[in-house]
Amino acid sequence: MGDDKCVLVIREFDPSKDLTSVEEVEKRCEVGPSGKLSLFTDLLGDPICRVRHSPAFLMLVAELSSTKEIVGMIRGCIKTVTCGKKLYRNGKSNHPTKPFPVYTKLAYILGLRVSPSHRRMGIGLKLVRGMEDWFVLNGAEYSYLATENDNKPSVKLFTDKCGYSKFRTPSILVNPVFAHQLPVSNRVTLIKLPQSDAELLYRRRFSTTEFFPRDIDSVLNNRLNIGTFLAVPRGGCYTQKSWPGSDKFLSDPPESWAVLSVWNSKDVFRLEVRGASRMTKALAKTTRIVDKLLPFFRLPSIPEVFRPFGLHFLYGLGGEGPRAAKFVNALCAHAHNLAKQGGCSVVATEVANLEPLKIGVPHWKSLSCDQDLWCIKRLGEDYSDGSVGDWTKSPPGLSIFVDPREF
After folding, report:
1. Whole-angstrom Cα distance, residue 78 to residue 213?
2. Any idea where the N-acetyltransferase domain is (predicted)?
C-alpha cells in the first residue's frame, strides 16, 4: 500500500457529500463470522441517528488525502450526568439530610468503524483522539463507551492504547414480541404519567442514580418517548382517573410501586439477524404461525428477526417496596403489548448487573447479554466535586440509568 494512502485527514462528517461513502464503509464492516448468527444495524439513511438526540454531538470521518476515500468514522456526544452523590448536613445537627446528586460532563463514543482494508494502520486510534479533542474542547470531564466483552480488538484499542479502564458490566435484556398479548396482573393498576409528573418522579427518586441525565426533561419530551408508566397496587387510592400528581404520590406512596419509560427505537434504526440456516428460519416461522392461529394458548414464538426489525427500549426502571419486582414484571408485559401494537419484534432494556429489580424483567437468555462492557477515561484534571474523587475508580452501585438516546 503506497505511502500516500497513509496520509489521513480527520474531519467532520458532511452529509451533503459523505453519505454514500460512509454507508459503503458501514457495509464493508458488517461482515459477520462465518457460520454464526450476527446482528446488523440499518441506520435508515441517517449515520448520526444514534447521537443526534443528545445535547451535543459530532461525527468524524477519516479520509485519505490523495484519493478522498473515506476509510473510517466515529460518533460522539456529550451530556451532563450523575457521577455520585453527597449528603448535606443541617447546620444545627450532625445528622445528614437526603442525598443530592453530583453531576459531571460526560462524553460517549460509539460507532467507531474502520474499513477492513485499512485496519492496523492506527486509523481507529486517530479517530478516537480526534473525538477526544472535541470532548475536551467542549468541557467533558470523562469519556466512556460500550463494547462487547469478547470484542478483543476493540477492548485492546481502548484499554491498551487509548487509556480507558473497564468500568461497568451491565446486562442487556431482550425479550421477543409474540403474536399474542401478554396478560397484565390483575393485582396491579397501571397509570400513564403526564410528562411533567414523570420528570418530577424521576428527579425526586432517581437523580442520584449513576448516569442519570440532568436533562431528563429533554428525554421525556422527545418525540421518540412513548410514555412513562407507573404500577401501583390495585384497589388503592391511585388510579388513572384519580391521579393527584407526583407531589401527592411521593408524599404518600404505597408500600410497593414501580416505574419505567418506553422509547421508540424503531424510528431511529432497524436490526437484522443474519447467518441463520434455512432450518432455523423454518422453525421460527412455524412458531409464529402456531402463535397466530392459537393465541389463547400464549405459546412463545420466535419473532421475524431475519429481516430488518424494530424494537422498543425500556429505560428508567425503578421502584420501591417488597413487590416492586413483580410490578416491574407487569410494566414489562404492558410494554410488550405496546411494542406489538407498534410492529416491533423485540423489547430491550439495560440494567446494572446488581440491579435488584432485574428479576422482574422477562427476557430470553439466547437474545440477551449478561455482561456488556463499559469502559471509561478521565479527560480533565479537575473534578465536578472534590468529595466524589475520581469516578473511574468508584465502585459500582446497585443501579444505573441508561439513556435511551445512546442505546
Report:
1. 11
2. 8-183
Yes or no: say if 354 and 210 are a contact pair by the CB < 8 Å rule: no
3 state SS of 211: coil
187 Cβ contact list (under 8 Å, min separation 6): 233, 234
Instruction: Determine the Cα angle at 158 with ends 108 and 75, to 5°.
Output: 35
Nearest of 168, 164, 211, 169 to residue 377 by alpha carbon:
164
DSSP per-residue letters across 19-60? HHHHHHHHHHH--PPTTS-EEEEE-TT-TTTTTTTSSEEEEE
User: In this structure, what C-alpha cell is assigned to residue 265?
Assistant: 427505537
| Helix (H/G/I), strand (E/B), else coil: 333 | helix
Chain length of the chain: 407
Q: Which position has the grid cell 391521579?
A: 243
Mean pLDDT across 403-407 = 93
- Which phi-psi region, left, alpha or beta, contains residue 227 (left: φ > 0; alpha: ψ -120 to 50)? left
Average pLDDT of span 217-236:
97
Tell if the pTM clears 0.70, that is, is over it: yes
What's the CATH number of domain 173-360, 2.60.40, 3.40.630, 3.40.50, 2.160.10? 3.40.630
Pick from 377, 316, 398, 313: which is nearest to 349 by CA? 313
pLDDT tens digit string along 73-104?
Answer: 999 999 999 999 887 765 555 566 788 999 99
Domain ranges of the chain: 3-169+374-395, 173-360
Distance CA 164, CA 144 (A): 8
CATH topology identical between 3-169+374-395 and 173-360: yes
The rounded distance, in Å, linking the Cα atoms of 138 and 153 is 28
CATH number of 3-169+374-395: 3.40.630.30
DSSP 241: T
Count CB-CB contacts under 10 A for residue 394.
14
SS3 (DSSP) at 385: coil
Contact in structure between 276 and 222 (CB atoms under 8 Å): no
